[in-house]
Amino acid sequence: MPKPNSMQGWSRNRDYKYPEDFSIKNEVKIYTCKESGKRIIISNGIPDHNVRQANPNIPCATNWAVTMPLNPSVASSVTEIPTRGAIAMAVNGVPAYGPQEGNGSNAVEPSAGSPIQDAKFWYGHADMQKAWHFHNPYMGANGADSDTLLGYAFDGFPIYGPLSDSSNLDACNGIEINGKYQYHVVATNEVNEGINYCNGNNAANNWNYILGCYRGSISTTQVTSSTSFNIPSDCTTSTSDCTDKSDMFYIKMNKSGQPMLRNCDWLAKSSNKSSICKNKVTYYENGSDSYSPAQDVCQAICESCDACFENKKSRFYKNKKNGKVKTKTCTWLSKLKASSIRKNCAKTMSGGGYSPASLQCPVTCGVDSCAAS
Predict the structure, then answer these.
(1) Are residue 247 and residue 351 in the same domain, yes or no?
(2) How far apart are the first and last CA of the chain?
(3) Which terminus of the chain is less hemmed in, N or C, by CB atoms within 10 Å?
(4) Strands 174-177 and 125-126
(5) For the purposes of burial, counting CB atoms within 10 Å of the CB of 271, is it exposed (0-12), middle (13-18) or buried (19 or more)?
(6) What gap in Å lies between CA 356 and CA 213, rounded to an integer?
């Protein structure tokens, strides 16, 4: 899948805090498509929590587009999950992989002699393709309980945090609660990592940290690149997905030459919130300090949650000259010839906190179903 540049300034065996240490921020949209019966997750695969970079694979953004059943049903037979690669998507848009590493070793509870030791943690790690992912059952939500929605399996059923006792779960990690089937991950102390991955009798596996098998059908599930993905017209994002973050956002430099930072609580009370959302669209980066504008941080207040949201004053990364990041606005882009628009929208580089044109100006770029009418 196409990728822009990797995390800037990252190196092996270091801890990184979100969002201040992330040059690429988490982006995820979960669509509900009632007429077509689909749930679609579009993301850049970047985690939205603190991590430790323990291997040499510095993460890149990955253009995930996953389509799965919106209303799955229990199938007449179970399906084996892949021994490698993605089996589910977390609610933060990061994929969950099966319990094995490429050499067949246990990723969640590796033996002392296993060459890969960094896959076992709740925050995940990056593979050789530089895609961040989880093997650990907490799927990026450290301390999750049985009521915590962690993500969705590729058969469409939701995945929740661990039960205090997993003995009532079926072989796939599923259980029916209030008439609805759902999965629950299994804590490491309830999985016997000392036995073989395959049980030899059916499609279920013995290292069922996240899933033992699929209880529903995956025949209509598709995993593709979001760069060429068209979202059906009946799809909407849930209002519950539109939230204001606790991060500080950047307004401008004050008279003392320091960044003026505020939070969403302050913005909600401000009489100038509409102007701030619309006009204060600059990103701030200085060393390890990185702050986004209000429209990125306070999306509910700024009404900027929609995947097709485009502020004509938003700026995107154009290039870098003499060490300085050059940006352009969506208005500037919209006035170009069609061929020049396509050329700018095809670029995937980012820098200085600024995303490429396809992310900042989705209507002008005609991304997915966002083309201007």
Answers:
(1) no
(2) 29
(3) C
(4) unpaired
(5) exposed
(6) 38
Q: What sign has the CA pseudo-torsion 357, 361, 362, 364? A: negative
Q: 72 is written with which tokens? A: 């799955």
Per the structure block, which two tokens stand in for 156? 């469409």
Residue 310: domain span: 306-373
Confidence of residue 368 (pLDDT cuts 50, 70, 90): low
Checking if the pLDDT of 13 tops 60, the result is yes
Residues 154 and 269 in one domain: no
Separation CA 35–CA 50 (nearest Å): 37
- Per-residue pLDDT band at 205 (split at 50, 70, 90): very high
Indicate the SS3 state at residue 300: helix
Q: Is 136 in contact with 120 (CB distance < 8 Å)?
A: yes
Residue 295: helix, strand or coil by DSSP?
helix
Question: 249: burial class by Cβ within 10 Å (0-12, 13-18, 19+)?
Answer: buried
Total tally of structural domains belonging to the chain: 3
Q: Three-state SS for 335?
A: coil
Mean per-residue pLDDT for 57-77? 95
Distance CA 215, CA 63 (A): 27
Instruction: Round to whole Å and give the CA distance between 259 and 172.
Output: 51
Calpha distance 299→306 (Å, rounded): 9
Closest CA to 137 of 127, 129, 145, 126: 145
